[in-house]
Amino acid sequence: MKCILVATEGAEVLFYWTDKDFEERLRLKFGQSENEGEELPALEDQLSTLLAPLIISSMTMLEKLSDTYTCFSNSDNLYVLHLFRECLFIAINGDGTEDEGDLRQKLRVLKYLFEVHFGLVTEHGQLIRKELRPPDLEQRVQVWEHFQRLLWTYGRLREQEQCFAVEAVERLIHPQLCEVCIEALERHVIQAINASPARAGEEALHAFLLVHTKLLAFYSSHSASSLRPADLLALILLVQDVYPSDSTEEDDSTQPSPQRPWSNQHIPLLQAGSPRSSGPTRSSAGTETDSFSLPEEYFTPAPSPGEQSSGSDSTVWLDGGTPPTEAPQVQIAEDTLQALMAGPPATSFPRRIFLDASVKETYCPMVPHTMYCLPLWPGINMVLLTKSPSAPLALLLCQLLDRFSLLEAKLKEGKGASSSLRSHSFLGDLRQRMDKFVKKHGGQEIQSTWLEFKTKAFSRSEPGSSWELLQACEKMKRQLYAIYRRSFLSTAPAQGGPQLPQHLQDQVQTLMQEKLMYWKDFMLVKSRRNVTMVSYPEV
After folding, report:
1. Residues 84-112: pLDDT tens digits?
2. Roughly what angle, to the nearest 10 degrees, separates helices 100-118 and 229-242?
3. Under a CB-based contact definition with an 8 Å cutoff, are residues 114 and 122 in contact?
């Protein structure tokens, strides 16, 4: 019996996930009504009613004592609470299968998924509420079902796939195949897109191939930052959520998949780590390294134990012999185009995601990317990450927000009286940057807010008090977060924002299919036999 809830301090539900046992307990609890014909309240209302005393007491203790409880248990359930910014995350377990550490891991993972989808907006309480609980009921249902489905996919992958069970990227090892794939990704994907005049300013950064959940090959452009294994696991999850792999080798890809329940047994930990290094990177699934950042030169990896793990049959096949005939084999649909046409809706990809990266050789958290998933055949997908021309705006907004946060900290410490603000060197830099930013990007609202801030912070005749400056800082940060939201969430590909033209996506997809047509059956068979290498996420 499990439940995850995200709520405001007023017990308003921003997101929930429950398994069927927890839903049944709620039904029994709220189904005992005096009026038999009375309709039961919605599930989110039941959760709000059930947990409102817990939420209110926790927030009251935090307000009065600057401290609150984070874990407790009663005769039925174990509760874990964590306050992220202004949102209270609650995880509940009632069957004894999870301890406090497991529940805390769930909450961290859910927060990570929010960051991947919403970027810096997750740091502002009011704006993240709008994203998680849109006023439109239909849109709200879509948002909640998306994250509920992701949690269910996590549980399925953790039970069925080694890479999610040990939280590591699993890679196929085959030098000749890796060489073919990397060359194709370099010439026919990254370079072809970046050289095309039709790309509308989009820059291809990363391209990689997945066989089910295993990484076959990876290539990054010279200007791209490195991607860590934790990021790759998140991207693999998004792909598997839309294009799920068969759970067993015997499954026929033409069979319809069962409807997904909203239940989940495990949610593995994907945790953000240290800032990433920038610079040119080229990566291969066949190299022995725990990082995806490799030297400049192009090379063919030496044979590895992973290649020998498939036995002599693979070598015979490559030399022109017959493919391995050991049963069971993965069944491949003959007409792959028809199989793909029956897949998920076209709106699934491309989609806007946010990953830490370096912009202009400067580390920036949660940089907006556009993610494309181009299915080559059932079970084999190519993933492409691009960066829009507006990415430097994300870096600028991040830097401005950092400086306002630093100013807030100094004011709260009592070191930021208005009379002494001008002595801080960073404040002069902030004023210069903000003047340029408002002139170039600002509308009337942020212009008036910035003018109000300057009056309170820099006026020699009527300087504002520390409390007034704190309020002005909060207003400025709210405006900057709103610009970030308008620039990168409201203009996402799903909302009609910029993206690579469809003909360019079709072009690289077709070229990759032509290059790998000879290898497709071999890749699917090897993915089920492979003794792989792993790269553990940075903690």
Report:
1. 888 999 999 988 888 898 889 888 888 98
2. 80
3. yes
